[in-house]
Amino acid sequence: INQEHGTIEIGHVNFSSQLLQTRSATEANYLLLQYAFDILGYRRVEWKCTALNAKSRRAALRLGFQYEGTWIKSEVCKGRSRDNSYFSIVDDEWVQLKQEFQRWLNPMNFDSNGQQLTKLNAAQINPRSNQGCQIV
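and the corresponding structure tokens:
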């Protein structure tokens, strides 16, 4: 958290396998973003993960975060060198992303079994490019 510069990072996220890729998981992330931008007034929300964590990288992109790059040997974790990938959403992008989250979270977007009828298109809404972010 850097209040002076208006930036905040989503910290360690650990969902159980039952929560992964569910409406609840997406809504939890939406509520975090809404709180950061609309309540606390931050200008930037960051997502950082080890470059080897493809699931986290995919999640960041799906939620509308934009890939900014990978810092090589940026940390030492458990005695091993770690490369970190960085993603962000900035306040200018939040207005459109917020509308997309609200559209997707609308109960009318889910069938009687709770399955989505249309996909979350947050990755396509964000005006910055995600070029250079290849996830294996």
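(Above: one complete record from the training split.) The helical segments are 23-39, 54-62, 91-105, 122-125.
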